[in-house]
Design brief:
The complex is a heterodimer. In chain A, helix 4 crosses helix 5. The longest helix of chain A is centred in the last third of the chain and has 16 residues. By secondary structure, chain A is an alpha/beta fold. In chain A, a hairpin with a 2-residue loop joins strand 9 and strand 10. Helix content of chain A is about 35%, strand content about 25%. The mean pLDDT of chain A is about 95. Chain B has a single domain, classed as MetI-like (MetI-like fold, Orthogonal Bundle). By secondary structure, chain B is mainly α. Chain B is elongated, with a radius of gyration of 21 Å. Chain B starts with 5 loop residues before the first helix and ends with a helix. Classes of the chains: A alpha/beta, B mainly alpha. Chains A and B meet through helix 2 and helix 3 of A and helix 6 and helix 7 of B. The complex binds adenosine-5'-triphosphate and magnesium ion (MG). The site of adenosine-5'-triphosphate has 10 residues of chain A, from strand 2 and helix 1. The site of magnesium ion (MG) has 5 residues of chain A, from helix 1. Chain B: This is Polar amino acid transport system permease protein. Chain B: It is a multi-pass membrane protein. Chain B: Keywords: Amino-acid transport, Cell membrane, Membrane, Transmembrane, Transmembrane helix, Transport. Chain B: It is found in: Cell inner membrane; Cell membrane. Chain B: It holds the Pfam family BPD_transp_1.
Chain lengths: ~260, ~220
């Protein structure tokens, strides 16, 4: 498959997210062991690596769902604040998409998308709903606004979840294996929405096992193993000429053959 | 022995008033004990040790003291504690509310704990505060899930209001027992009382069954 974009973008500008030696422990288990990396404006950075290597944990440290024990996460030039009140302001500018969608089941698709602006930003409900409708149309679900999540397929639910995150006008989108819980038929529709988002210039951090997506869409790949970034580079380098033996075995384990 | 059912008809006005008070007491108790239960549950989940301890003491105390004792206790202790002379109805209401709030707090706690953590995280990740996430995301789901339990509590509560008759609240039980002692129509009045409780309670129980079927199993 031909890659459309490769290599870093906007390297001359300050990064949107920067990780400086991030350490995270759960009890005696060190899950992140000094991770440093940067995410530039408009980039798609994909996190790949074996199960349990700390990818989700780094993503959750980004918006402080987990608090790093060491090092720091810098967002738009500022280290993540300490108080809950300040963190809420930071989180508004980061959208997160979960493996299990985590749509709110007691709300319709439209309400799911509108609830953030209304509740958090105090937006006018009518305006918020109009914007939510536009976002649903953007992810190809303009006719499904009245459906509750239980009346949507997995792929549709995940697209609503993406629209919900976009409703807050985030500066960066965090995706944690957004297609891992999906039936194979519906993976493509979610990846297409993500690809379009990337083309519009959205800054994205994506944990994924979809190697062909990473190959085609990512600007930069971080390979995780045992709480460290063991290798990073543009997709062409990582997939075609990985230097680290663990990267090679991880990719061949997935059946990736360049 | 001759039975005189006429006595029931003769006192229909008093009995109807008793029924009204029983219903009022049930409605008022639930109207207070639902927010009360939520408040106590939130206290128990507070990060402030003293607050969560208070919440736990409240639940464990008022849930495990017999209701009739609470009713007597409210009757004798409340005026001393507050220096206010409560009406019998208000006293009974306080006792019922303490007991049912404690039960509801446990019900809500189970309901909230049954909502998976990812829901709270999704709300927080959007930038909601903990209390916004509770109000908008967790509690609406939790309440739906525990509706059958709340409905069962309601039905027990409706019958348990008869306990406040011991402090002379003029609800159905007290009224019926008063008429009994004035007319010496023991069997008639007890039978009438049972019939009225049953007639009022049975549709409620059926409604609860329906709620169980509708909401009990859904995710
Ligand atoms: N809340 C937690 N408490 C204890 N251990 C945790 C917690 N969250 C994650 N871990 C552990 O941290 C390690 C890294 O987890 P993480 O979810 O970041 O891995 P991952 O790279 O995302 O893996 P996967 O591909 O399976 O999602 C795992 O060993 C996991 O069991
Ligand atoms: Mg993970």
């Amino acid at each position: 498959m031909e890659s459309t974009v490769t290599g870093r973008k906007n390297g001359d500008q300050p990064p949107v997210v920067q990780y400086d030696g991030v350490v995270k422990r759960f009890g005696s288990l060190t899950v992140l062991n000094g991770v440093s990396a940067r995410v530039n404006k408009g980039e798609v950075v994909c996190l790949i690596g074996p199960s349990g290597s700390g990818k989700s944990t780094l993503l959750r440290c980004t918006n402080a769902l987990e608090i790093a024990d060491g090092g720091r996460v810098v967002f738009e030039g500022q280290p993540l604040p300490k108080t809950e009140a300040e963190l809420r302001h930071v989180r508004r500018r980061m959208g997160m998409v979960f493996q299990n969608f985590e749509l709110f089941p007691h709300m319709t698709a439209l309400e799911n998308v509108a609830v953030g602006p209304i509740t958090i930003l105090g937006a006018d409900p009518a305006e918020a709903r109009a914007k939510a409708q536009a976002l649903l149309e953007k992810v190809g679900l303009g006719a499904k606004g009245g459906n509750h999540p239980s009346a949507l397929s997995g792929g549709q639910q995940q697209r609503v979840a993406i629209a919900r995150a976009l409703a807050m006008d985030p500066d960066v989108m965090l995706f944690d294996e957004p297609t891992s819980a999906l039936d194979p038929e519906t993976i493509g529709e979610v990846l297409n929405v993500m690809k379009r988002l990337a083309e519009e210039g959205m800054t994205m951090v994506v944990v994924t096992h979809e190697m062909s997506f990473a190959r085609r869409v990512a600007n930069w790949i971080l390979v995780f193993d045992e709480g460290r970034v063991i290798e990073e580079g543009p997709p062409a380098q990582i997939f075609d000429a990985p230097t680290h033996a663990r990267t090679q075995s991880f990719l061949s384990h997935l059946g990736w053959n360049g | 022995m001759t039975l005189d059912w006429n006595v029931v008809w003769q006192y229909r006005g008093d009995l109807a008033y008793g029924v009204l008070l029983t219903i009022a007491l049930t409605v008022a108790t639930m109207a207070i004990a639902v927010p009360g239960g939520i408040a106590v549950m939130l206290m128990r989940q507070s990060h402030v040790r003293a607050v969560s301890f208070l919440g736990t003491v409240f639940v464990e105390f008022f849930r495990n003291v017999p209701l009739i004792l609470l009713v007597y206790w409210a009757f004798y202790v409340l005026p001393i504690l507050t220096d206010i002379q409560f009406s019998a109805f208000a006293t009974g209401l306080v006792a019922m509310c303490l007991n049912v709030s404690a039960y509801n707090a446990e019900t809500f706690r189970a309901g909230v704990n049954s909502i998976r953590k990812g829901q709270l995280e999704a709300a927080m990740a959007m930038g909601m505060s903990r209390s916004q996430a509770m109000r908008k995301v967790v509690l609406p789901q939790a309440i739906r899930r525990i509706l059958p339990v709340l409905a069962s509590t309601w039905v027990s509560l409706f019958k348990d209001t008869s306990l406040v008759s011991v402090i002379a609240v003029g609800e159905l039980a007290h009224t019926a027992l008063q008429i009994r002692s004035q007319t010496f129509r023991v069997l008639e009045m007890l039978t009438a009382m049972a019939a009225i409780y049953w007639l009022l309670g049975y549709p409620q129980a059926k409604l609860v069954d329906w709620i169980h079927r509708k909401y009990g199993v859904t995710e």
